[in-house]
């Protein structure tokens, strides 16, 4: 795409200056997760941290079932039980602890 002819959205930096995150998929315990983690803290991250998106489902692989939590810059679905909050906090904590990366 030609940068001179591309439409700019008000309030957004040019595409080459936007922060990019790394998409990460994995499992923890009996749960599957998908996340977007940035190289440093972002204003819309979980608790102001590096995790900008995090979705967690019960089960693994193709058998993954009920969504227990979903965060995408804001809460979509908060963990509903203490055990689900524990899972969310542990996965988010592990993702926050990843070393910074260049994207």
Brief overview:
The chain is α+β, with helices and mostly antiparallel strands and 103 residues long. It contains one helix and five strands, in the order E-E-E-E-E-H.
**Mean pLDDT over the full residue set:** 83
Note poorly predicted spans: 1-6
User: How many domains, as an integer?
Assistant: 1
Form type: globular
**What is the number of helices?**
1
Q: How are the strands ordered across the major sheet?
A: 1-2-3-4-5
**Can you count the beta strands?**
5
- N-to-C order of helices and strands: EEEEEH
Largest sheet: 5 strands, antiparallel
Helix-strand makeup class: alpha+beta
Percentage of helical residues?
Answer: 10-25%
Give the CA-CA distance, first to last residue. Answer: 20 Å
Which range does the strand content fall in? 25-35%
What's the Cα radius of gyration?
16 Å
Supply database-style keywords.
single chain, 103 residues, alpha+beta, 5-stranded antiparallel beta sheet, 1 helix, 5 strands, 15% helix, disordered N terminus
Characterize the structure shown:
With 103 residues, the chain is of the alpha+beta class. It has one domain (19-96). It has one helix and five strands; from the N terminus they run E-E-E-E-E-H. It has one helix at residues 82-96; strands at 22-28, 31-37, 51-58, 67-72, 75-77. The chain has a five-stranded antiparallel sheet, with helices on one face. The model is unreliable at 1-6 (pLDDT under 50).
């Amino acid at each position: 795409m030609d940068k001179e002819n591309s439409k700019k959205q008000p309030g957004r930096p040019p595409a080459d200056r936007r922060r990019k995150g790394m998409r990460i998929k994995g499992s923890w315990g009996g749960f599957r997760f998908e996340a977007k983690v940035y190289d440093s803290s972002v204003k819309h991250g979980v608790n102001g941290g590096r995790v900008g998106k995090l979705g967690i489902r019960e089960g693994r692989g193709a058998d993954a079932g009920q969504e227990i939590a979903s965060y995408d810059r804001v809460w979509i679905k908060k963990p509903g039980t203490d055990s689900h909050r524990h899972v969310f906090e542990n996965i988010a904590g592990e993702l926050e602890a990843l070393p910074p990366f260049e994207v």
